[in-house]
Specification:
By secondary structure, the protein is of the alpha/beta class. It is built from twelve helices and eight strands. It has an eight-stranded parallel β-barrel with strand order 1-2-3-4-5-6-7-8, surrounded by six helices.
């Protein structure tokens, strides 16, 4: 197993973004901002995208943090068109196409191609347990049919299956499969992923495990997809810059901040509860309303107040402004 490091002696890999890869950097898995009637809050999308652009990060819409499994096809298309409208120059727009229906994923990818999306990402379908052979054929069927570059998204927390690394490596040689986003929390898997792909100019590895952002960036990872970036993208922009010049101390300082803010809304909560908590914090920052799509539900006023109080305390302690 390849050793991963967070110290200056061993962190000598080529800096992030300098390895000639087309897809790299900080990609934020955007929340889906909602109005009280559960329609898309287009004004909030504009605010969020402006905030992403300010810190030179890229948006990824209709993913896990975007509550994609709870959105109707009509809502997804509304978000897609609104995102295209507010896409900033120089931005790479990513979109999720995951569905339990193969043709729905293919058709939505075509709509993505018509609305300014640059790359699409997909998880496994979530109902049937699939064999490795079935997984392989499914991704090949998608990659052959979609008109945009495809990223394989591994997230066992929602699909209840882990895509084997050797299978992703086989699929990585498909002409239309350009990368993977991995949200599986495994140190060994992260180490092996970086060993496999950090020197592959035609295939990118994005980490969706914010707690190991520093490890990934200092050991040849191509990018991060951190949900905390919805609230405070500056952390990850600065972490990327520090990693690019091998400033390990600064990378690790920023990792500490990422952990503090991430734990604020994720600690002790289920994934669904954390999405509500994240929107509470984003509401305090003036970015979106604290409304989640059923079956997710809002939590107590008391808990919301505690979240805001804790946020204010952290911002004051760390001398940070949102």
């Amino acid at each position: 197993m390849t050793d991963l490091t967070t110290n200056t002696e061993l962190a000598t890999n080529t800096p992030l973004g300098d390895r000639g890869k087309k897809y790299h950097g900080i990609v934020i898995p955007a929340v889906t901002p909602l109005k009280e009637n559960f329609s898309l809050d287009e004004a909030a999308v504009e605010k969020m995208f402006a905030n992403f652009h300010k810190y030179h990060v890229h948006p990824f819409i209709i993913g896990t943090t975007g509550e994609s499994a709870s959105l109707s096809n009509e809502m997804k298309l509304d978000y897609l068109k609104t995102a295209a409208k507010h896409k900033q120059a120089g931005t790479v727009l990513y979109a999720g196409i995951s569905s339990n229906v193969l043709n729905e994923s293919i058709e939505f990818a075509k709509q993505c191609a018509d609305n300014g999306v640059d790359v699409v990402a997909t998880t496994l379908p979530t109902y049937y347990t699939l064999t490795e052979s079935q997984m392989k054929q499914y991704f090949i069927q998608l990659a052959d049919a979609v008109p945009l570059p495809l990223i394989i998204y591994n997230i066992p927390a929602t699909t209840h299956m882990s895509i084997p690394l050797q299978l992703i490596d086989e699929l990585s040689h498909h002409a239309n499969i350009v990368g993977t986003k991995d949200s599986e929390r495994s140190d060994e898997r992260l180490s092996e992923s970086l060993k496999l792909w950090r020197d592959r100019k035609d295939f990118s590895h994005f980490l969706g495990w914010a707690a190991k952002s520093n490890v990934a960036l200092l050991n040849g990872g191509d990018g991060l997809i951190p949900s905390t970036g919805n609230l405070i993208p500056s952390i990850y922009n600065e972490m990327q810059q520090a990693a690019a010049v091998n400033d390990v101390e600064q990378v690790n300082n920023l990792q500490r901040l990422s952990d503090v803010f991430g734990n604020l809304y994720q600690g002790g909560r289920t994934l669904g509860e954390s999405l509500w908590a994240l929107k509470i914090l984003m509401n305090e920052a003036g970015l979106c309303k604290p409304i989640v799509m059923p079956p997710l539900q809002i939590m107590s006023t008391k808990e919301a107040k505690q979240l805001v109080d804790d946020l204010k305390m952290i911002l004051e302690k760390e001398h940070i402004q949102l």
